[in-house]
Amino acid sequence: MDPIDLKPFSQACQNNRDPILHHLKRLFADCGNVLEVGSGTGQHAVHFAKNLPQVNWYTSDLPEHHEGIQLWLDECQLPNLHAPLALDVQGTWPPLPSIDAAFTANTVHIMSWDAVQAMFSGLAQRLPVGGLLVVYGPMNYGGSYTSESNERFDVWLKAQDPERGIRDYEKLLSLGQSVGLEAREDNEMPANNRLLVWQKG
Q1: Between vectors from CA 179 to CA 98 and to CA 201, what angle results, nearest 5°?
Q2: 90: which residues sit within 8 A by CB, 6+ positions away?
Q3: Minimal CA–CA distance to 166: which of 134, 129, 194, 186?
Q4: Is 0.90 surpassed by the pTM of this model?
Q5: Angle between helices 169-178 and 113-126 (to 10 degrees)
Q6: What count of Cα atoms within 13 Å lies in the side-chain half-sphere of residue 41?
Q7: Could you tell me which of 96, 154, 147 has the C-alpha nearest to residue 125?
Q8: What is the pLDDT of residues 42-54, one digit of tens each?
Q9: The CATH number of 3-200 is which of 3.30.470.20, 2.40.30.20, 3.40.630.30, 3.40.50.150?
């Protein structure tokens, strides 16, 4: 079997990539370099780099995910899509290119809260003034779930690891403010998800 046929696949990525891209086309219209934190399977990176040819898209994740990401990159051979960087947000960050924006999808509920804090802090240090942080995923508001499906998902997440869980929107806003990231947008997305945007002040 061709190794390309073994590349990882997420149906959720397939479903949400176009709704996310709709916003990224606007948000990243003037961006040169974008860092994706937690590239996962690599599907988002390929789709976004293909449809945002003006953007140099830098993938990153823990090393155990690099092989799968690289399979997607090898298949598409896009000149603006870059090999995954080894990034553990709670560890020593690797040397990064000068970035204009950062994107992360479905990570803040998988990471521990300490890791979420480390990610926000690390990105705030590396974004330029005016740089954007775009976060996609499910959120709670006022300490409440926005749907029964999100509540079931949260129970499942915490059963896998008590440090996981859907985050409170207000808590993320406070975190962003504490590291110099100003909340700019809260966009409703399909399947009870949100697309949040911060800008470095």
Answers
A1: 65
A2: 114, 115, 118
A3: 194
A4: yes
A5: 40
A6: 15
A7: 96
A8: 999 999 999 999 9
A9: 3.40.50.150
